[in-house]
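Notes from the 1:1 (GR / supervisor)

We went over the backlog. Supervisor wanted to see one worked example end to end before approving the batch request, so GR pasted a single chain during the call. The sequence is below; no edits were made to it. Supervisor asked that the structure be written out right there so they could see what the output format looks like.
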Amino acid sequence: MAWTSTSLLRVCTFLLLLILFLPREMMSSVLTVNGKTEDFTLDTQPGALESLECAVQNHIEAEELLWYRNEGRVDLQAGNKINSSSVCVSSITESDDGVSFTCRLQRNQTVSISVVLNVTFAPLLSGNDFQTVEENSDVNLVCNVKSNPQAQMMWYKEDSIINLEKDHHRVQQTSESLQLSISKVKKSDNGTYRCVATSPLKMETKDFHLVVKALPKGE
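Structure output shown during the call:
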């Protein structure tokens, strides 16, 4: 069957109207951050400044954008919301490691893209570095550590690796601490213990001083 120009015009008109009146949710707007279309991890370091630019692709009208830092909404200036929006993360610290920034489409917040900060830094050690205990008591030396990447941990005493004695020493390690437990301390446990943390970036140490006092006479 031959198509007449009138029939062809009607079909084209119908298709055009169909496209124009599609629900907005059917339009496949895509978000990008720094040119990336999928969630990604951004490697950075303390003291750095990072700029994140979110943009709407395939939009047919002005789109408002929202930014979130973890679950909290980021305040944006009026001229930094429509079709493209930037946030600057300045003076980055170790505590920013793992923080996520998410850009969302205001009208449909299921359309989003996230960036997770990967802040690399050398080991940071802390803990109670001076303890005095009596003989036969128990004591814990706890070396707290923050490091990215994770550090290898070790205890030393007077510059030598501790010779762990069964039922006397116990070492426990988590991603955030290295603990040396000493049961029924003896005078020979007196001295300086060194917590050593080694990462691909740097080796750090912290000294812990243990003073063992003799039991009072008669005890």
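Supervisor's comment: Confidence is low (pLDDT under 50) at residues 14-26.
Batch request approved.
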